[in-house]
Fold this protein.
Amino acid sequence: MRFKTVICREGLYYLLVIGFVMFGSILREVNLLMVIAGMMLFPFFFNWRAAVVSLRRLSVKRQLTHSITAGELLVVNVEVKKRSSRNLFGKKPSWAVKLEETIINESMPATIPPKTLSLLFWRIPVAGSACLSYSARLYQRGMYKIGPSRLSTGFPLGLIRHYRLWRGVERVVVFPRCGNLTPNWMRLFHEVGSSKTAQLRSSHQPAGDFHGLRDWRTGDGRRLIHWRSTARRGSPVVRQFEQQQQLDLNLLVDLLSDSPPGEGDEEVIEATISFAATIVTHLCHRGNCYLRLAVHGNDAAHHAGPVHLRQLPQLLTALATASAPSEDCLRDLLQDDNEPLPAGTPTLILSPRQLDPHTLLSQYEADHACGAVPGAVTCIHTAGAELQNFFEVPM
Amino acid sequence: MATLLLGMSSGNLVLPLVAIFAAASSLYVTDRYGWIYLNRHIANLAAVAAVLVSVHDFFQLQRERQLLAIAYLLIYLQIVLLFQRKTIRIYWQLLMLSLLQVVVASALNFGLRFGMLLSLYMFIALFAMFLFFIFREQTRHILSRITLPHRQESGGGKKDLAPASGLSHELQAGSPEEAGFRLGLVKGVLRQGSATLVLTFLAFLLLPRAGDSKSLLQEVGPRMVGFTETVRLGDLGTAIENLQPVMRVWLLDPLDGQPFRLFGEPLFRGSMVDRYENGTWSLAGSRESRNENYRLDLARSGMTRQRIVIEPLREPTLFAVYAPYAVDLSTPIAFNPKKQQLVRTSNPQARLTMELGTNGIRFHRQIQIEPVGRFDYVDRELLQPFGDLENQTAAQIRLEPLREMAADILREADLPEEDTTGRARALERFLKTDPDFQYSLTIANRDPEIDPIVDFLTENRHGHCEYFSSALTLMLRSQGIKARMVIGFMGGEWNTLGSYYQVRQKHAHSWTEAFIPPGQLTGMPHGGWLRLDPTPTGSSAGNAASTNALLRYYQQVRNYGEFLWSNYVIELDAKRQQEGIYAPLGDGVQWFGKLLATTFWQEEMGGSFSLPKDPRSWWKLVAKSLLLMLLMLLVFSGAVWIFRHSGLRRPRRIAKKSPRARRPLPVPFYKEFENILARYGMVRRTTQTPREFASTVADRFAGDATLKSLADLPPQIVATYYHVCHGGRMLGTDQLGQITGSLQRLADALKADA
């Protein structure tokens, strides 16, 4: 219901006294008691009328940033406007309007109950506005919905309270908090990246961009010989390539846990997400990287392409809204026919489960339906102590 | 205030004063300094003790005073609550107790003063409830901020990844004072209080009544002096100093029914005494008439009407201009021939409204000679103690000086024996005009050896109306003229607002009626009663008082207010409502019906329109005009309402962003910045941008030795303002704190510089 009027507890007591006085005045036919009953009754009606009129022609506008990192302060400016009225009796300001804001985490509505906070606008002038701010520190990643709001006032006596629902809603994404990547991680990352280069070298395939030609030296592969120039010069000439600095990564975030759901389980999942967010942030800042991120959210989220800081909010949003699946979906995360990975792209799987990369590789290579995993597969067990080798949990 | 009302109503001011003292002291010792608090258990025990004491009082007091026990209980509970720690609940309970106290007080007091204080109380109560609402909202708001769940920490060590919770607080919370609540509060109270008063009164008047109004306590009127069967000389003097209201009298013109003021002072007759013995008047006991009441004859057309409202009295005697005739036979009044009085047949201890006709007033003057009525006795008792002229009695001997004096006066007047009227008037004139006789309310030292009237005539020639009328009555009798002494009221205060006479006890008066034989009067076959008032004129106590015109006017207004309050509030019942409210309303509706007829328009508003000659009729015209305007306003409002709610209004234009709508969000700190500067005469012109203004201010600061250090501040604040206002930047707590500090520094520096 958009509008609602409620008699407050004080109002009920007040009505009780009015009833008592009226009953006495009728029973004993004492006129003065009737006068008192009237003197009490009309303010009650005025209260109702004033409360109803106060909430008319009000609109709520919020000004806020649409994304923050978990733990940061979300500042929301709320402006309540009152439109002017042509009504002769509608030129009065609104007094003591209470605005109740509801903040709901839409990503995990079951686990996190909605929070309500209230703002009190003492006066909202006609054809003007009143502005208040509040801040909320949100510790949990996710997609938060602010609103709908409830405006209410009991002005001037507080005997009756009139409520009005304002359906305007704003959404804020709370990104997962980032920690620190340890030197072990950097080492692992380079190992994973170098594995692709080694693979390319072993196949004598050019790695990197064309730089120029030079004379043949012992050990150069025949595939590198530039035959046209060799024929023109009469001596073997080979193509020279720039060393390729681009690091590619296929990052799969598996949130399915072996253990039954519990508190510890949630912590591990959050740690996994936080780890993934840190990796993504690191890669985005580093640039020159091709990243495919696959994570299970409300829907399995896939992102593939060269990363840049501009993509960071999108990637973090995917991670912010990720949730643990009810069944194994690793196949779904690996499979993406629309975005084929560059050859030799290594795959890093972050999972609370203990996974064997060789078994995984062979299993998925054998399965033609899901396509082959092009590079090496590395698994990090985030539920174990292995995580601490690569990642420091944010404080 | 409620406690005072209660004390005023119960007649006991001690307990209310104690309550007021408790309220004042609790304000300091409990609320302000917190020295004394009653904890909940002690408070409960005290409340139980108060209830027990009140129950005891309830059974000890008389039935009509039992309500007082409840009143005292409310005061006890109030005192207990005052010394408890104040919470919303306690405040609310105090408010409810206050309301209940007023309710109880209203059952004990019905005066106009109480009504006025009740209106004042309503305003104060509304104000208190407004304040209480603000207090409640603030308290609840603060509580809601405190009880918001803080960050939860799990025991797993990884507290930073604990399930979400929000710690929220306002950064820019307003306060009622800043919002201009003070002025708004007063305005609101005045507006709402006035509207409540008007609507309450209208609803009260229009709400149909089922029966007669009555009070919880039986009204007991004052004891009237001089209206019993025996009157001792001197009694009336004490009554003359009494301001207690006795009755209100409207004299209505027989032609147009409008109230009028009599030429001269009206005399309202009450009782008659005809037997004198040693300074005491009484009714003659020798008459055979049974002590039974007779109905009055119905008034004839052309008779002046008198509408009389008599306050509750202990005696059944009624007062009116004689001879009285009944207008409504159902009115509980009758004539008692033995007492020669108009009496009421209902309970005298309640207010009575009656309407009588009289032939005693003609052409707005009270006639001097009244025909002998069918219940009048004209016998030898009216000559007592001089009835037996042959055998001189002891009483006659005692009154011999009186007789001789009367005889001398008549001898000097040299009037024929048949001119009874002339002879009576000669005696009256002697007492009234002789400068030796003085009107006085002081008690004279009469010689106990002689008759008090003889003493009055010969030794101490001062006294009040009873002495004058007694002397005249006895002097008339001594000369063979039958006479009787009448006790009643003379004059009264004429109220110009209500066009009525307000008669009080101080207007009590006595005069003499002399019998004029039938042969000496035309048109009176049974003779007549000549009214003689020997008391010197200008002696009335009422005339001596309130010489100040303003004060007199105030008294009239107050008196009329009391009448209205009593008539239209306290005693408004079904009958009075029908007569005083519904009937005029019905007339108004009929007038509207006529208004719609063209002929009426022509009569009232046509070219031949002219102001009525009688100013009293102007009010009617004004009332009609106001009523017409009200009707037009109602029709217009109804039409506007229908237009707005029927969808006839043109569709709203597609929202086009007005400059106001595009206005950026208000930034409180910048507003505060401008306010601080404005206090010292630096006001931003409308043509200046904030940045230009800041630059101007900075230049000014730079040129001032004491403010030089603050020259960078205005541009910084304006830069932040631009970021927030136009750049959508959010300020954190730290930044807001810095800006607040800067503003404070600026305000302090400017203050020091000023």
Q: What stands out?
A: Residues 314 and 449 of chain B are 35 Å apart (CA to CA). The mean pLDDT of chain B is 78. Residues 112-146 of chain B form the longest helix (35 residues).
